[in-house]
Amino acid sequence: MLNFNISFASRWNYISIAATVLITLTAIGGILIGAYAIRVFSDVRTTWQHYDTVSEQKVAYLTNIHVYLGYSGMAQHLKDYLLHGDEHILTWIDIDLDQAKNSIDSYRLLDIGDDETKALNDLRALVLKTRAQVLEIPKLRAQGLTPAQIDKRIDLNPTVAISALNQLHWAWRQQAEESKQVMELTSQNGSTIVRLGWIFLPIMAGIAVIVFWLVSRLCRLVAAYEEEKKALELSEGKFRDMAANVPGVVFQWYEHPNGERGYLYVSPRCQELYGVSPEELKRNWRALTLHPEDEKRYLSTIDDAFRECSDWSFEGRFLTPDGTEKWGRCLSKPAPVNENEIIFNGLIIDISMQKKMEEDLRILATTDALTGTNNRRNFLHMAETEVARASRYETALSILMVDLDHFKRVNDTYGHAGGDEVLRQFVEIAKSHLRGTDILGRIGGEEFAILLPETASSGAFILAERIRHDLEQTKMLWGTQTLHVTASLGVADLNKSDATILDLMARADRALYAAKNSGRNCVMQDHGEQEHFARSTSKPEPGENLILTKPGAHGAN
């Protein structure tokens, strides 16, 4: 706390002393800088000397080219071969040509001008041409040509080679002269700068003060920048951690007026969730495969969002490369960059688990847990829809009400587990006779209802008898015991007096009670206001109509 209590004057004195010390140090630094400048110019001279060294390398390569192509190299070996015909001399000639080519290629790696490049290219072409001609010498000797005739066919020292070598000689000498002149001029300028530095030393001290103030301000800016940089890196690290761990894919994509669109950024979880790497998705924005049923809607929502520059949302199914189906919810907001580009920042959330839970809840809400068929609530909902449709289009509609006979006795004898097994097996028997459009539901404990769209009472009666007969003939095993179960069924078809599904079910219930009162294990049919019941307890023959009414879809089953 004492530092904060020091007076402004005291702090100013400290700052003045510090400034004086810094100015003195700046003046001393100027003297040292002057001395250092002399050293710098000496280093410059050394640098130019290095440039001369390069020139010496050029001379060395030129000498090698002369040696390997001249009469102390390839030319002399060629002469010996023509005179004596020793085959191994051709190997020496090939080595000489290769060494000359290497010297030419090494020369080209140095700092050279356009003239030198052209000359070296000419020499290289000459070497390659000579090599090809030397390889033809054995063939010429085999043809009987004399050494003099062969020598005339070899372009050993053509004019182009002499011209190229002269050009190289001239080029490196001129470069060496230019290097020397530049070096001398730089040394003179350096000496002049040093003298001027001593003359303007007081001015340099004043400049040093200004520089000190600027540097101090710069240091503050640098410190602030470093703090901001650290904060930005920390923020970016948090963002990357978030993007890598959120249950979805963070993305940023764009669209240009010409229709070009693509992803600028895709978080790493895209690979984990949907089997597509961020790099692949940035190369091809359509690499994320949509379910065929959702693809058209997906593209339509994207087009609408880009066209209207509005929020984008989509919920649909994606397919991973191995065919796995995953649900995703896409959300993004537009951020126009300029007139020619729109960027959308968004998120694709994996909602596969949510969809599975929704489906499980739907099944729990609409399905009987024991038998797997529709529960009462869902059956009534679906049946009400069918009743409205049949009434509107005046189509046939029938219903079967089923009650398992003496079911309480089954529970008392075999326990509830045995009763449950009877219910499950009855549902399997009933389903084996139903179409895809028929609706089976468990209405109560052992009571079931079957709605038959597009089916008249005659067809429904036939179907009811078949279900009753199959159940009667089925031997259900429970442990070591065999169960025999029968059912009573009531049949009713939709008429104009039925306002709702409950009215139709009430009439079928009346037929069901009539069947139970008639001794059970039979099918009874209600005829509406006539209070007339038709009964069957025997399996119908194929094609037999038990009731003389117009048959429906099940009449042919």
Written account of the structure:
The chain is of the alpha+beta class and 557 residues long. It has 3 domains: 187 residues, Four Helix Bundle (Hemerythrin (Met), subunit A) (Up-down Bundle), CATH 1.20.120.1730; 108 residues, 2-Layer Sandwich (Beta-Lactamase); 190 residues, 2-Layer Sandwich (Alpha-Beta Plaits), CATH 3.30.70. It contains 17 helices and 14 strands. The strands form 3 sheets. A 6-stranded antiparallel beta sheet has the order 2-1-6-5-4-3. The N terminus is likely disordered.
Features:
557 residues, alpha+beta, Beta-Lactamase, Alpha-Beta Plaits, six-stranded mixed beta sheet, 17 helices, elongated
What is the gist of this entry?
The chain has 557 residues and is an alpha+beta fold. The protein has helices at residues 2-5, 8-69, 74-84, 88-108, 114-135, 137-142, 147-152, 159-199, 201-245, 269-274, 278-283, 292-308, 352-366, 376-393, 407-431, 457-473, 501-517, and strands spanning 248-255, 261-266, 289-290, 312-319, 325-338, 341-350, 397-404, 439-442, 447-453, 476-478, 481-483, 487-493, 523-526, 533-536. The protein has a six-stranded antiparallel β-sheet.
What is the fold named in CATH at topology level of the largest domain?
A: Alpha-Beta Plaits
Form type: elongated
**Distance linking N and C termini:** 100 Å
Rg over CA atoms: 51 Å
Strand order of the largest sheet: 2-1-6-5-4-3
Name the beta content range.
15-25%
In round numbers, the mean pLDDT is: 77
Query: What is the helical fraction, as a range of percent?
Result: 55-70%
Estimated structural class: alpha+beta
Largest sheet: 6 strands, antiparallel
Q: Give the helix tally.
A: 17
